TrEMBL record:
GO terms, biological process: peptidoglycan catabolic process
Classification via InterPro entries: Lysozyme-like_dom_sf, Lytic_transglycosylase_MltB, MltB-like, SLT_2
Lineage top rank: taxon: Bacteria
PANTHER family (UniProt xref): MEMBRANE-BOUND LYTIC MUREIN TRANSGLYCOSYLASE B
Active site per UniProt: 119
Domain named Transglycosylase SLT: residues: 23-313
GO MF assignments: peptidoglycan lytic transglycosylase activity
Key words, A-Z: Signal
Signal peptide residue numbers: 1-19
Name this protein carries in UniProt: Membrane-bound lytic murein transglycosylase B
Keyword Signal belongs to the record: yes
Phylogenetic lineage: Bacteria, Pseudomonadati, Bacteroidota, Cytophagia, Cytophagales
Length: 323
């Protein structure tokens, strides 16, 4: 009987699903998932047949802002007065939670706010794509990253079962990220943390999102009290030693010897990446330290990490003016 249901389900998948989708991949996923989980192929077929291909999802992921914008343009999206003020108000509303989470995780309150501010404007822009549709589309209709999103679709099904969530109603980003802090399903399962005593975690609730964003950074080895980024103070006969990634590999002493003078009182032996960013008034040179690299584990773009850092600093300064 189970074998008959499996073949029936696979046939239904082929006849119902969208033409833009790789049907063999859908069938392979259905068979594999059913074999490894407590679900029949017929039950999984019902779920997948209720997923819809979204061309706009493919269009958006094909041209992410981090890959097409200069730092100057990217910065102007996030370093706006309304976003900064929204961060100050969010801080006031959730001050107790932020203080407790920061003390527990070692992640500064303003950095948590920087993450939430860049990701979703503090929960105001969580996304209006059904997560099921987004992941289905990218798993089976976007070959370039099919493996990644197939795994995320599997994690999404596991997540909804584990947390008792309605998989048909959860909305998020065009890439399938969920909640205030925009966790992909795999990150939700691995790093989401409830604020308080409850077992479950709901990233649509600000308290859990605050705790989870901080936990993500902590689990990726956030250095409590460590520097994040510092602008190069002066260039003197600089050599071409700009870093190819955000991972710190050379010391500040090395960069100084090659013409890049650090600002502030940071130990010369501390490692950093030398970042070159195209600002509105020309190239900007920054040192990104270990904690900057940790932020890029949330999103691998240096533009993203710099936006989080600068938004965090701007919110902190604005709040201090209000006190």
């Amino acid at each position: 009987m189970r074998r008959n249901l499996m073949w029936l389900g696979l046939c239904l998948l082929v006849t119902v699903s969208s033409a833009q989708v790789n049907q063999s991949k859908v069938s392979e996923f259905a068979r594999s998932y059913a074999e490894r989980h407590d679900m029949t192929i017929a039950e999984l077929t019902v779920i997948l047949n209720n997923a819809e291909y979204q061309q706009s999802t493919v269009d958006k992921i094909s041209r992410p802002a981090e890959g097409t914008m200069t730092w100057g343009r990217y910065r102007n999206i996030f370093l706006q007065d309304n976003r900064i003020q929204a961060g100050v108000e969010f801080w006031k509303t959730h001050e107790e939670v932020l203080v407790n989470v920061s003390e527990d995780s070692g992640v500064p309150e303003e950095i948590i706010l920087g993450i939430l501010g860049v990701e979703t404007f503090f929960g105001q822009r969580i996304g209006d794509y059904r997560v099921l549709d987004a992941l289905y589309t990218l798993a089976f209709g976007y070959p370039k990253r099919s493996s990644f999103f197939t795994a995320e679709l599997e994690k999404f099904l596991e997540l909804t079962e584990k947390e008792g969530l309605d998989l048909y109603s959860i909305k998020g980003s065009y890439a399938g990220a969920i909640g205030y802090c925009q966790f992909m399903p795999s990150s939700y399962l691995a790093y989401a943390k409830s604020y308080g005593e409850g077992d479950g975690c709901n990233l649509m609730e600000p308290e859990d999102a605050i705790a989870s964003a901080a936990n993500y950074l902590r689990e990726h080895r956030w250095e409590t009290g460590g520097p994040i980024a510092a602008r190069v103070a002066q260039r003197i006969n600089p050599k071409d030693v700009v870093s190819s990634s955000s991972r710190p590999r050379n010391t500040l002493r090395y960069y100084a010897d090659n013409g890049y003078m650090p600002s502030g009182n940071i130990a010369p032996a501390r490692k950093a990446a030398l970042l070159e960013l195209e600002g509105e008034e020309g190239m900007e040179y920054w040192f990104g330290f270990h904690n900057f690299y940790v932020i890029t584990r949330y999103n691998h773009s240096a533009l993203y990490a710099m936006a989080v850092f600068q938004l965090a600093e701007a919110i902190k300064e604005a709040r201090e003016r209000d006190l």
